[in-house]
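Sequence in, structure out. Go.
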Amino acid sequence: MTIKKFQGKTREEAIAKAKAELGEGAVIMSEREIRPKGMFQSFKKPIIEVTAAMEEKEKRLDSGMALKNMQKMHETVNVAADEPIQIPPITGEPIDQNKAEQSAIEFLKRNAQLLKKEDLDERERIEEKLENLQNILEKQLAAAPKEVPIDQEFPKSDTKRKENLAFLKVLYETLIRNEVHEKYVNQIMNEFEKINWNGNSVDSILSNVYQKMILKFGQPRGIDLSGKKPKIIFFVGPTGVGKTTTVAKVASRLKVQQGKKVAFLTADTYRIAAAEQLRTYANILDTPMNIIYSVEDLKNGIEQMSAFDAILVDTAGFSHKNQDQKEDTKQLVQSVDNYNSEMYLVLSATTNYRDLMEIADVYKDISDYKIIFTKLDETTTYGNILNIKLYSQAEVSYVTNGQNVPDDIEIFNSQKMVKRLLGGS
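Output:
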């Protein structure tokens, strides 16, 4: 199989280039808009990039027998909206990324003969199903099915198969448009090889995808203050992601909603007025706040506030490339190993995935962490939340969607996020 990307000023121009090189039988698997970067970006128009595939002629397998074998491999998922989610341990060899990135496209291409003359009305109906995803899923979950039903026989006609294949293509494109990384989109598509996608209804496939993606996010949890007091909670992350405001929001939830005694420590002595910003929040919440400059100051501050349930430590933001500041933060976090402590990595949902991966690696060297994503109100694509969850294997605990304290923060809702990623409201 030949897979290539082509760019043009318009969708039609990009597709024309693909067919000119690969032939009229080329299948367009995905397309995306690439916006220009740099100082003069506002004067430049975006370009369209399409991914096209062309399969060499080869001996075809008995697709009916293959799909029946896949059906036997299907494992049902039992996930209701209010059930805790169990994540199986990760085992086995690392994923071959090159293989994973082609498998979904190959899966669609093997059945491409059904889509050569695409029915636009049918495609619109598939897309409408995605747009109304929330209503579909709520009805299914209200019925509390124990497992996704699997048809026992394949339909005699190709109608259902064609509709399902069109749905899979729309699903692939929807996830890519939401900036889910191709590696993870193809992992999701690979799972269709294990189910009877040919015999199921679109709604059943959609429910299956929904449940499996929830499993990938896991069961989110907020801060747990059980155990030894005080609990030391570090907030770390790059500059400009909103750590100090997030600290104030978390403190408000703990004190106002849960009635806990909280205190502040800040090690952010680099940013102008950072300490004063946190002191303002401390005065509003009527809670103590101290500035720390060293590990010794941190230990003294903890001793003074030992009667509190939680001590929230606001650290200085730094570039993930700044080794000196990284070591300073590492010393602070690791100096309290004898206390009940945990670390939250605060990330902006607007940061690109490559930078997020580097940031995740740098802070993993400091300590294990949970993740808080900020600025969800400043983006329309949420794929990086799934990307970094799967890349780091860290729990996503909270998300924020504005500057208002204490309102614009909530425990991460995996069901809501999956609906957004799949094109629902």
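Check: Residues 58-95, 107-118, 144-157 have pLDDT under 50 and may be disordered. The chain has three domains: 1-58, 60-217, 231-413.
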